[in-house]
Amino acid sequence: MAAPKDSDSRKLLRRLQAVMAEAAEGQERLDMIVRLVASSMMTDVCSVYLHRDEQTLELCATCGLNLEAVHVTRLRVGEGLVGRVARSRGPLNTADAPSTKGFRFMPETGEEVFSSFLGVPVQRLGERLGVLVVQSKDAREFNEDEIYALEVVAMVLAEMTELGAFTGEGEALRPRHASQVMFKGVTGQEGACEGTVFLHDPRVVITNPVTDDPEAEAARLHAAMDELRLSVDRMLGQASGDRAQEEVIEAFRMFAYSRSWVRRMEEDINAGLTAEAAVEKQQTAARARMRVAEPYLRDRLADLDDLSNRLLRMLTGQGRDRGVLPDKAVLVARNIGPGELLEYGRKLQGVVLEEGSVGSHAAIVARAWAIPLVIQAQGITTEALSGDRILVDGDQGIVHLRPDEMVRKAFGEKLEMAAQAQKRYATIRDTDCVTLDGERIELMMNAGLLADLPSLPSSGAEGVGLFRTELQFLMRNVVPKRGELASLYSGVMDAAGGKPVVFRTLDIGSDKVLPYMKAFEEPNPALGWRAIRVGLDKRGVMRMQLQALLRAAHGRDLKVMFPFIAQMQEFLDARGHLSREIARERVLGHTLPREISVGAMLETPSMAFAPRRFFEEADFISIGGNDLKQFFFAADRENERVRRRYDTLNVSFLSLIEQIVARCAETATPVSFCGEDAGRPVEALCFVAMGLRSLSMRPASIGPVKHILLRTNLAEVRDVIGRAREAGAQTVRDAVMDYLRAR
Ligand code: PEP
Ligand code: MG
Fold first, then answer.
1. Which residue has the higher pLDDT, 334 or 300?
2. Nearest ligand (C-alpha, residue 625)
3. Residue 193 appears among annotated catalytic residues
4. CA 560 – ligand 2 centroid, Å
5. Around Cβ 43, how many Cβ atoms within 10 Å?
6. Domain containing residue 677
7. How many A from CA of 738 to the centre of ligand 1?
8. CATH number of the structural domain spanning residue 468
9. Domains of the chain: total
10. Which of 139, 264, 463, 573 is least crowded, fewest Cβ atoms below 10 Å from its Cβ?
11. Is residue 400 among the annotated active site residues?
12. Could you tell me if 191 and 277 lie in one domain?
């Protein structure tokens, strides 16, 4: 892009600032701005279109078009040239508008006499706010300086819109972040809550986008860049020795030292923007590019986004400190890893993510805490402000931000109904789980923290069927010490009060990334170096963990389970390590556990076809349905688009479960199911019908699952499933649901 005419665009911005400073109403301000831009750019028309809603733009002010069209003319995103600008998030410049693709004739505006058209998006960090347009009668293309000048004005407009400078009558001029908004996302975890928004990444608000003193602003930018570079260099220093981590930070560092990035921001400052406004202008442009970029480039642009956020915090002083978690906090974030989520602790009422997926480990943490989670709530991080009231309906995947009284009342009734259901479940808490036809089913709970253990008595679980030990590792910045782990595991056994606890050894990799053990970048982490593969390769950590478990048991029974066994030898090797640690403890004179059972998680289809010896050697087997299902259907558990195509009650998957149960029966090896589906009543029922007699689930699911099992005749469910299979159904869900409804 050619160098902008500093003086012109600076003059324009200064006049714009003067308009902003005048005590005018929103509409009046917009009217003044369009007049100002038209006269400064010497065009016949200047118009501002703002979003009424996500998909509709409304002409809100014009100088040059028919004034009767203001607040009357509306366009969909993608419709007409204005809609095209909104959709593409980039400028559209044409000398002959009427014959340009997409042109839509709108008679009420009287625009047919104008030939040239230049439109630029009014957007802020990926959020579309509107479109700014200039038009002229003479057929000419606008030059790069003019495009640039209009973009700078649009940037300032975006900031002022965010600050509420254009509020007035009607939907398009409604105050920002003030009205009720509903988001339709996807259920991550059922349940409902009412609380107060706490933004994981607080928004930075720019109150002064325009400057009179570019030199001072450039100096501020350079000082912040120095601080940024220093912090990235420090990160690199801390990673020294770890090649993989170094490479990632090196890429990051390249951006921090990028001359072209700084040059673009310097140009923006020269044009009259403050340092923070210049950073944000470039960040907005990068986000627009990110939407259409190739995956590799998207990662790089994400680096730039991260660096821009850091710069903005440095320049504005905002958001360095996240502040104190309010009462009844609902965490709102673009996405979050399990480690970061755990850092918030159990005080959260609910979590809403703009991205996220049901199968991720952050979702599993939310599930273990039994707090509602809504994922894929698009746009929530740009709309919500910390402190906003929020209702989270995890059952429907719906979020109400700043709800009105009517919505709050209806929601309150829903919460009351849920509380009633909990009371019903409490009455069957101590009842044995036996089906109507006399089959006894063991219901266990999943856990990962000592803080989960109080759920054991309150849920009525018979023990902990899966203790995910990695959560402890994910919460720290350094590897926990053997002594700490031993006392934690011992505390877990104490809290279980003699009920069995199955400890699964460290299951890291895939989406569970330890900050201090960052693996090299893998093209497919879910199929990569994870779980037992890491344990067998990095024996130090596994040995230390096994020692901690042996010491924690100290004369009590110990149940250890190895994750992600994909072939028999992995199990035999892992068990061999445990045997060596037992022998070592004996020599050292430590008290050994009374009895040790060693199990394997069956999480890859390969193990359903393992040699009989595997089933003989394992003391017990636990089906990890989350992973097993993703590998069975070749559908990433974290990818919402593909994950939901495949029903757990698909006859192929149920046949796989049936086959695993049969293989275990041949050798009388106890088998249970500990994936998330065990906690879904209808799925649990079908698993039991396939022969499983032990299920492990999040504590809050035990009540609903027991409730359905107590009232069901298993033989009948088996019949229903059998008939659906014979009839050639792809999934038995409809048949089972019809049966349940009929009863
Ligand atoms: C599973 O895969 O089903 C499982 C229980 O393990 P995780 O969800 O921790 O991978
Ligand atoms: Mg797993």
1. 334
2. 1
3. no
4. 15
5. 24
6. 428-742
7. 30
8. 3.20.20.60
9. 4
10. 139
11. no
12. no
223 lies in the same domain as 356: no
Ligand nearest the Cα of residue 466 is 1
For 414-432, write each residue's pLDDT tens digit.
Answer: 889 888 988 899 999 999 9
- Domain containing residue 289: CATH number: 1.10.274.10
Ligand 2 centroid to 511 CA: how many Å? 11
- Does some domain include residue 423? no
DSSP state of 273: B
Are both 14 and 61 inside the same structural domain?
A: yes
Kindly state if the Cβ of 510 falls inside 6 Å of ligand 1.
no
Asked whether residue 145 is domain-assigned, the answer is yes
**Ligand 1 binding pocket includes 277 (Cβ within 6 Å):** no
CATH, residue 151: 3.30.450.40
Catalytic residue selected from 46, 60, 433, 674: 674
pLDDT at 163 over 90: no
pTM tops 0.70: no
* Phi, psi of 102, deg, nearest 5: 95, -10
Helix (H, G, I), strand (E, B) or coil at 63: strand
Question: Three-state secondary structure along 571-635?
Answer: HHHHHHHHHHHHHHHHHHCCCCCCCEEEEEEECCHHHHHCCHHHHHHCCEEEECHHHHHHHHCCC
Claim to verify: residue 268 and residue 159 sit in the same structural domain = no
Q: Which atom of ligand 1 is nearest to the CA of 507?
A: 9
d(CA 317, CA 320): 7
Q: Give domain status of residue 727, yes or no.
A: yes
Q: Does residue 330 share a domain with residue 228?
A: no
- What residues have their beta carbon closer than 5 A to ion ligand 2? 603, 624, 627
How far is 445 from 429, CA to CA, in rounded Å? 13
Q: Enumerate the β-bridge partners of residue 464.
A: 445, 501
Specify the residue with its C-alpha closest to ligand 1, atom 1.
Answer: 624
- Do 299 and 367 fall within a single domain? no
732 with 616, same domain: the answer is yes
More confident residue, 513 or 355: 355
Please indicate, yes or no, whether residues 521 and 567 belong to a single structural domain of this protein.
Answer: yes
In a domain, 543, yes or no: yes
DSSP per-residue string spanning 296-342: HHHHHHHHHHHHHHHHHHHHH-TTSS--PPPTTEEEEES---HHHHH
